Amino acid sequence: MSAPTAPSTPRLPGIVAGRYQPVRELGRGGMGAVYEAVHTWTGRRVALKTLLPHLAGDAGAVERFRREARAGVQGAHPHIVEVLDMGVDPEDGTTYLAQELLIGEDLAALLARAAPLALQRTYELLVPVMAALDAAHRAGVVHRDVKPGNVFLARGAGGAVVPKVIDFGIAALADVAPVTRTGAPIGTPQYMAPEQARGVRDVDARADVWAVGCLWFESLSAARPVAGDNYQALIAALLTAPAPSLRAVAPALPTEVCAAVEGALQPDRARRHRDMATLARLLLAAPCCAGEPWGKALAAAYPFPLASEPARVDPLTLAPTTLQLPPDTAVPPRAETPSRPHTTAPTTRASDTPPRAPTPWRAVALVSIGLALASTAALALRGAPRGAASLAALPPSAPPPPAVPPVTPVAAPSAPPPTQPVIAPVPPPAFVRPHGAGAPIASALSVRRPARPRASDAGAARATVINGAPVLEP
Predict the structure, then answer these.
(1) What helix, strand, coil percent values describe the chain, rounded to 5?
(2) Catalytic one among 145, 167, 208, 275?
(3) Residues 177-186: pLDDT tens digits?
(4) Would residue 160 count as lying in a domain?
(5) Statement to judge: residues 83 and 121 lie in one domain
């Protein structure tokens, strides 16, 4: 009988890319292997992921590596595994990815050993995970495979546990086209959102909200929200089963916590929490958390904003609306805005200051005023005795001419000496011109001809019109 042989130690590859020396194998999957390695130049220990040789020519596998590297950089956060390097070994063509080395265990191992977890313990482990995913969503990265195995509980300084989100290999990047064929479900069935099970193309951050709801459900109840004996049964349950109820399996939990988790597990994503920050704020605001010192410390350490995506402006809200006022409400007058601002600079446009053309109505009005004044003066001079200085007025019973507008009376000057003739006041457009040997007659039709004094007026005072009032000259 032959002795049992010891398990063979996996063969370690040589130095990768000339600077990463594998020390031991940490795990192996269908696409590649993970090693603990040492950077030969700096001595830093790293986790080195390498793609299996037969997949080196697979564009989809190489793209998955590249996405994991980009997602780790774009969603950089203290609770996301740090990506240090990525490339292709120039000698053998090995595709590699170097990340920070984490020491500890994943959440799946903890739940298998100690579920259900205490409420405070669940908060302390999952709130940092939600903060990391919220940061990734803001950077345009959707993980699409959040599960207990991808939440690593690393041991930090002093033995503190630091949750880290790992494995962004199938993450959806906002600026990168999908590499999987349309209609193929992506993710782990037990934590896959219903829209992922249907194979929709536009998977968004609400798929991660569903998966985090599954983490809360399982951590607090030791049961999974969606169960099935095989892959087909799980997909059928995702597509047909009603929304999971945490209150039904763990009735002792606070009502606010159950309601928040159940809001994340709505099969219709339109009814699900719109983003990770909304779910986190609801959980942190629950009295069982907000009223405790540890809850206040969590809220201060992880201040989730009001929204994970920028607000969208509805074009309809930008349209002006008509203000309807009650019938008895007085509307204040609106201030008139001048059509052209006041300026002292000259303008060259003829349309700015159009000439003021005379109108027939203005001419008729001026003629009527002139005739009325001339008639008044003639009557006054005819009724006065020769050599007397008096100004006759119209009798009170005489009505004014119908076509003549009212004329503002001008105060008559004091009576001149009897030896001086009386000069009647003349309006601005009229003037006095000689008319035979009789009295002066005002005419508005001869405005272009200057007044000429008569020879018989030599030595007499002359009247000059200034600003519409007569002034006697000596």
Answers:
(1) 30, 15, 55
(2) 145
(3) 444 444 455 5
(4) yes
(5) no
